[in-house]
Amino acid sequence: MLSRLVLIGCVAALLCRKARAAELPELWSVTPLSIAGSSPAIASDGTIYVAASGYTNFHDFSGGKLLALSPQGKVKWEFKTFCDIKASPAIGNDGTIYFGGRDRKFHAVSPQGKTRWEFVTDNWIDSSAAIAKDGTIYFGGWDKKFYALTPDGGKKWALDTGGPIDSSPAIAADGTIYFGSHDKKFYALNPDGSQRWAFATGGPILSSPALNCDGSIYFTSVDGNLYVLNADGTQKLKLKTDGYGPSSPVVDAAGNIYLCTTNLIQSFSATGGKKWDWGYPEVEGAAALAADGTAYFNIIGDYGVGAVLAFDTTGTVIARGNVGGELTGSPAIGNDGTIYVGSGSGVFAFKGTANPAKSCWPKFRGNAAQNGRLEH
After folding, report:
1. Strands of the 177-180 sheet, one edge to the other
2. Dihedral sign, CA of 67, 34, 163, 105?
3. 239: closest CA among 230, 231, 229, 254?
4. What mean pLDDT do residues 256-264 have?
5. Which of 74, 141, 197, 364 has its CA at 20 to 30 Å from residue 343's CA atom?
């Protein structure tokens, strides 16, 4: 009886917290006829790129596509791959859009929506690309290889790991490349492909690492822990999260950490203390942090309706935008404060309150271009 009363009380408290949330004003939405599950990338001219995949019904066999949308929500073009795309697009130094797919190809697409080149691998590519200052492109694959390509699509080198690679790499200011593998190891590589060090965890590593300006590296493992490492590979913090999914952390200017862990949204201080958490049956993706301290997260579904939630610095939900479908990617914030999300029912733009936070890694893949590169 007591446990039932506790459960009822928890549900009531959750509903009360939701009831206080204002509605995020919707600016526009686009239905691409397939599931836009990736995180949007935003070009310097405001163009939004979103990868869509899967099928919304038995009559839609369009498979994967890359959508280019104007800041006003107009479809500029579609680039079709005819196979699922789980990776998020990354924008190169010259505006080229890079992404891999389950067609086993890594694609380079011009800002006009035309193929520049493609690189064929031996299995799916779910890892989002990182792009170095010199234009080198890094990504991992289900063929257990980590690749480095030249800007024109030639292979510089490939490193074999002991498992498939879902993790999307991150590039530090000194050029070091970081990523995890299903082999339970987190790797640090030099730009020439030689290994600096590898850090072992208790489970596969699916998350995309976050980097801070002080050299700290943040990532989660399926072993249920959040790890913070120093640049030399030594452990700085190990925090129990009880999360077993591809949780990718982000970091604000004060070093506070935000992440989703299966059914919890959590925030930790720079020293590892729990600041707040917010429970929900299923959450996924990384946060997008705004300059006013608001943290935006996606939740997969609420009675069949996904939503982007805005949290204040105390962990209270202050605004909510419903999207009519599951949200599995991460939100993005435009320079004007617009919040962009891709969902099972389309791509949505909501009016936010501030531009992106000025921290070293305030969103999935680090910045609006999603090039996975530390800029500071």
Report:
1. 170-171, 177-180, 185-189, 195-200
2. negative
3. 229
4. 90
5. 141
Structure tokens belonging to residue 204: 């596969």
Q: Nearest to residue 66, comparing CAs of 105, 29, 92, 40?
A: 40
pLDDT tens-place string over residues 146-166: 999 999 999 999 999 999 999
Give burial (CB, 10 Å; 0-12/13-18/19+) of 358.
exposed
Percent of the chain with pLDDT over 90: 75
From residue 150, how far is each of 84, 120, 125, 158 by CA, in Å? Answer: 25, 14, 17, 12
CA-wise closest residue to 330 among 278, 283, 293: 283
| Identity of the highest mean pLDDT range in 9-18, 114-123, 275-284, 297-306 | 114-123
pTM of the model: 0.92
Residue 19 to residues 7, 13, 15, 54, 297, Cα–Cα distance (Å): 18, 10, 6, 33, 17
Give residue 6's pLDDT band: very low, low, confident or very high (50, 70, 90): very low
Task: Find tokens 């790991």 and name the residue.
Answer: 161
The 10s digit of each residue's pLDDT in 13-32 is 443 444 468 999 999 999 86
Radius of gyration (Cα) for the chain, nearest Å? 19
Structure tokens at 323: 């999207």
> How many residues does the structure list for the chain?
376
User: DSSP label at 25?
Assistant: P
CA-to-CA separations, 352 to 98, 102, 240, 308, in angstroms, rounded: 27, 33, 32, 11
Q: Name which CATH class applies to 17-350.
A: mainly beta
Nearest to 123 by CA among 101, 139, 107: 101
Burial of 261 (0-12, 13-18, 19+ CB in 10 A): buried
DSSP-assigned states of every residue in 122-145: SS---SPPEE-TT--EEEE-TTSE
Instruction: Answer whether residue 7 shows pLDDT above 60.
Output: no
Residues 6+ apart with CB under 8 A from 174: none
- Kindly tell me the sign of the dihedral angle through the C-alpha atoms of 118, 121, 127, 130: negative
Torsion of CA 263, 252, 371, 215, to 10 degrees: -110
pLDDT at 301: 64
